[in-house]
Amino acid sequence: MGTIPGEPRDRRHAAGLLGLAFGLVVAVAAVSVSAEGAAPDGAAIIAHGVGTAPACATCHGAAGQGNPAIGAPALAGDGAAYLRAQLRHFAAGTRINPIMQPIAHALTPAEQAAVAASFAAMPAPVPHPVAAAANPLGARLARRGSWAIGLPGCEQCHGPDGIGVAPHFPHLAGLTAKYIAAQLAAFRAGTRPGGPQGLMARVANKLTPPERAAIAAYFGAESGPAEKKP
Ligand code: HEC
Ligand code: HEC
């Protein structure tokens, strides 16, 4: 009996709550619309992720230094246009990688541009001193290439010691030998687009297996940039 007199009040109360909830939904929608209108925050996406995309820093490091143990390359200091193009390739499935494809796909084009710009603004990995004497084949290919097969030295595009020449030529310094070898294989197999004018597909296709192994070992360090030399 006691609940009946209260019923209309409860209904009014419920209706009021519903109205409030509706108002909140409208308000939240308005906030997310205005957030979409504003430029996404690349640094925040790197640190915290966005939507279903996890924080980039978990794998690529807060300073974009990469994590050799899980095969995540250093991104710091690469050109924004280059990084953005890679995200587009992953999202479109033209660069095949089971980890990065869904992550890139979860980002809007504006978010891809924002994270690319943030990583590009970070200082590039410092090249480790390359021991040319220990790897003469790698050193020759890196510095002079091979005129006989029309191959310029890697450093002619990627800079001395593979330091990178933004915006188009990513750094090789700071990558692992394993990652470099895998990318050369991907350029050859076409599971990664060959870059502007198919440059890297042509380079990778000219190298023999021993040359690919030598050049990967030359620029790459198994421990990557995380290893701090005293
Ligand atoms: C779970 C680990 C993981 C997370 C999280 C992650 N990545 Fe990656 N990322 C990788 C791996 C592994 C590769 C190497 C793919 C390959 O071998 O081709 C990679 C490659 C890349 C590349 C290509 C780099 C190059 O030089 O070609 C870009 C760009 C990139 N990631 C951006 C991002 C961004 C932006 C985020 C955050 C939104 C992110 N990644 C989150 C693991 C991760
Ligand atoms: C004529 C210029 C040119 C030369 C010479 C060249 N590269 Fe490249 N390389 C590029 C470009 C451009 C890209 C970026 C491709 C893209 O946009 O996807 C690239 C990308 C790469 C990548 C991918 C890096 C990453 O972070 O994923 C690797 C590895 C690489 N090159 C290795 C080499 C090696 C090893 C040599 C020497 C044998 C070499 N390159 C010679 C132009 C060149």
Question: What would CATH call the architecture of the largest domain?
Answer: Orthogonal Bundle
SSE succession: HHHHHHHHHHH
- Assign the CATH topology of the largest domain: Cytochrome Bc1 Complex, Chain D, domain 2
**How can the largest sheet be summarized?**
none
Average pLDDT figure? 84
The helix count comes to 11
CATH homologous superfamily heading of the largest domain: Cytochrome c-like domain
Q: Low-confidence runs (pLDDT<50, min 5 residues)? A: 1-35, 223-230
**Beta-strand segment tally:** 0
Strand content: under 5%
User: Which secondary-structure class do the elements indicate?
Assistant: mainly alpha
Kindly report how far apart the N and C termini lie. Answer: 82 Å
Shape: globular
Radius of gyration from CA coordinates: 25 Å
By CATH reckoning, the class of the largest domain would read: Mainly Alpha
Number of domains: 2
- Helix amount: 40-55%
Ligand set:
heme C
Question: What's a quick, concise take on this entry?
Answer:
The chain is an all-alpha fold and 230 residues long.
Describe the protein's topology.
Elements: H1 3-37, H2 42-48, H3 57-60, H4 80-92, H5 100-105, H6 109-120, H7 136-143, H8 154-158, H9 177-189, H10 199-206, H11 209-219
Bound molecules: heme C (2 copies).
One heme C is lined by residues 45, 53-54, 56, 58-60, 71-73, 75, 78, 83, 86-87, 97, 99-100, 103, 107, 115, 170, 182.
Protein described:
There is one protein chain. The protein is an all-alpha fold and 230 residues long. Helix content is 53%, strand content 0%. The protein is built from eleven helices and no strands. Helix 7 packs across helix 11 and helix 9 packs across helix 10. The relative contact order is 0.13. The site of one heme C (HEC) has 23 residues, from helix 4, helix 8, helix 9 and helix 10.
